[in-house]
Amino acid sequence: MTAAGGASALAGGNASMSTSHNAELSPRDFAAIAAIMHEEARIALTEAKTTLVQSRLARRLREHGLNKFSDYVALVERDADERQTMVVALTTNHTHFFREPHHFDHFRSTVLPELKRRDGPIRIWSAGCSSGEEVFTIAMCLLGEDRTSASWLRHADVRLLATDIAPHVVESVQRGFYAENTVAGIPEPYRSTWLRPAPGGFVMAEEARQLVTARVLNLFAAWPLKAAYDVIFCRNVMIYFADPAKRELEQRFVNQLAPGGHLYIGHSERLIGAAAENMISCGHTMYKKPEARG
Ligand SMILES: C[S@@+](CC[C@H](N)C(=O)[O-])C[C@H]1O[C@@H](n2cnc3c(N)ncnc32)[C@H](O)[C@@H]1O
Predict the structure, then answer these.
(1) Whose CA is nearest to atom 7 of ligand 1?
(2) What is the set of domains in the chain, with CATH numbers?
(3) Cα angle value 190/193/195 (rounded, 5°)
(4) In terms of CB atoms within 10 Å, which of 46, 54, 251, 274 comes out highest?
(5) Which atom in ligand 1 lies closest to the alpha carbon of residue 43?
(6) Given a cut of 90, is residue 119 above it in pLDDT?
(7) Top mutation candidate among 1, 164, 170, 263 for ligand 1, by most atoms within 8 Å of CB
(8) 92 CB less than 6 Å from ligand 1?
(9) CB-ligand 1 contact for 237 (6 Å cutoff)
(10) Each residue's pLDDT tens digit, 159-206
(11) Distance CA 128, CA 200 (A)
């Protein structure tokens, strides 16, 4: 599902431009918006994103009957709700099922057998989950290719947490509904086993949905997480942050992982800072936290 354009939409743009139907976004107003995005979500907007910001916020200006970005900036500076709406409008929610499939190959072949052997709770987090294709891909990997392969879950304490800063995508996870073209990329037999036809598309099977809890969470706020996590997926999220924010977040993920836990990051990302030194690489963009000594 793509709420407001894919990652590629972020590539274009030039500073201070206008079109007949859009208000002009001056460098000064762009800088004010970029500062708010950094403060609220640590999202780093460079001037190359001017066109993207202008087009995504055009509707916000229209809804408020504003003709000038300077008036919109003044509005978001005084109105916390509109500030949140703006942050969400400027997130990129592009995602799909079985994205970066080598992660799921590694998860099924290496991580899952380890988790199944172990007694005790299994906790997995999709951080920056967008509309849920990632977390439901993980759920389908846990359930396996048929109903028999899912039977181990009846006796296991397994929970998948899916979080995102954008409430509308979190609601999509909770609904578990996907359009036909979205589910087309799910390989068989997962698709026919774990999706049910519904008016206008498909819904995830109850067996998958009951594993998942979806919540709104800004990754730079306090995390209300009690458990240590066995696996964290934070993919194609940190690309939007500058290095200090990445460094801080990656170290928090390492701290939240149980010893021996795994972290998967997006295809164009890499660990930096202390997290890079503390984690063992298990292949491209896959990392393991060292087992506890003793
Ligand atoms: C491109 S999607 C990635 C979805 C999925 N992880 C994947 O790889 O397909 C990035 C998501 O990160 C979320 N996001 C961006 N900044 C965030 C923040 N500070 N806290 C939580 N989520 C954030 C966005 O709302 C968006 O849904």
Answers:
(1) 95
(2) 7-89 (1.10.155.10), 101-288 (3.40.50.150)
(3) 90
(4) 54
(5) 16
(6) no
(7) 164
(8) yes
(9) yes
(10) 999 999 999 999 999 999 999 999 999 999 999 999 999 999 999 999
(11) 26
